[in-house]
Amino acid sequence: MQTPDPDPDLRRRAEDEARKRGHAAHLPEQDLRRLCHELEVHQVELELQNEALRELQHNLQISEEKYRDLYDFAPIGYITLDADGRIIETNLMTASLLGEPRASLTNQRFQYFLEQESIRDFIAFRDRVLAAGGRETVVVRLRATRESESAWVLIEGKAEEGQTFRAALIDITRRKQAEEALMRRTDDLVRKSAEVEAARDEAHLYLDIMAHDVRNANNVSGMYADLLIDLAQGDLKAYAEKLHDSIQRSTEILRNVATFRRTQQEAVSLVPVNLDAVIRAEIGTFTRASIRYRDAPVEVIADSLLSTIFNNLIGNAVKFGGPAVEITIRVEEDGEEVLVSIEDTGPGVSDEVKRKLFTRFERGMASGSGEGLGLFIVRTLVKRYGGAIWVEDRVPDRPERGTAFRFTLKKA
């Protein structure tokens, strides 16, 4: 182990002091040998301590170099500023963001690199950091330079001793661009939505006018058809009856379209409704039909469109069941729900048709009859009331014995 060279001045002063004291010359030989041994041991201890210190210094240097590399090559910017916003130290990423060589940044004001609208925000951020001592954040925009484009950065700062503070700079330019693109897209969607709403209102206006005119024409045509039925005989009478049925189907289409529009336009506002009163009112509109029904004094959660369900289902049974069809309406309470069944003795519905019966514009009950909207509206309303609807054979596995429509409603 190499002994470090002593300080000449220190050696000279030590020798002078030793001569003044003169103790070693009068010591016995044994004491001199012991003293020399102690000096040798002490010298070895000092050499070992020096070696440990050199190793510690070497490790500290390696650690500092690692820290410096981590600091310099970090993927985010690091910067130290004084109370005036002057730059004390930066890493390479900060220099890249600011578009200047790192060596030239020292003592420059950070505000110099900001867009005009961001300077006030940064100064307020700096004052908060120095006053509170905690972590503060701000979003600012860096001005464009010859080496770099304008960029948005998120700055997070924390105060140090001596009226300085450290800050991390995170480039959020892409995020800001995405936010701006999203805002533009949102504005575009709002504008297009307003255009669609205006077009829808105009279409509804035209539809209202057309429906009003067609309804008036149907009323007049219906009166003439009734007159022909009363006056005509033979084939002419049969043709008049077919004309009357066609006018009725046209009126039904208008009614279903109006109902569907209400389901789409009106806000859902459900209230307790007397189910028995609704059923009896609809039965009263089918005076020529054979309908069996037992009182069901129960209230359900629905609205004024509940009657449409019964009108469509009873109407289908009457229309497709034939003149001798018998209709039975049952209401059963099941816990918090009510099960409603409308059964008929008509020709029934095949399993293939059952699967698509409630699909919009599917004509399942009879080819060429109706527009396929009625049962779709029925399903829409049942779902609106929180229930479910399905169709099955009145007599299990005997579709030719009639159909049973069943649906559930929530009790009030």
UniProtKB/TrEMBL annotation:
Domain PAS, chain residue ranges per copy: 63-133
Question: EC number(s) on record?
Answer: 2.7.13.3
Q: What are the Basic and acidic residues biased-composition ranges?
A: 8-19
Q: Does the keyword Protein transport apply?
A: no
InterPro entries named in the record: HATPase_C_sf, HATPase_dom, His_kinase_dom, PAS, PAS-like_dom_sf, Sensor_HK_Regulatory, Sig_transdc_His_kin-like_C
SMART domains to which the protein is assigned, alphabetical? HATPase_c
GO MF terms held by the record: protein histidine kinase activity
Kinase as a keyword of this entry, yes or no, is yes
PROSITE patterns from the entry?
A: HIS_KIN (PS50109), PAS (PS50112)
Region Disordered, residue ranges:
1-26
Q: Which UniProt keywords apply?
A: Coiled coil, Kinase, Transferase, Two-component regulatory system
**Any coiled-coil regions, as ranges:** 39-66
Task: State the top-level EC class.
Answer: transferase
Q: Where is the Histidine kinase domain?
A: 209-412
Q: Which Pfam families match?
A: HATPase_c (PF02518)
A single Gene Ontology biological process assigned to it is: phosphorelay signal transduction system
Provide the catalytic activity annotation: ATP + protein L-histidine = ADP + protein N-phospho-L-histidine
What is this protein identified as? histidine kinase
Provide the species name: Methanoculleus oceani
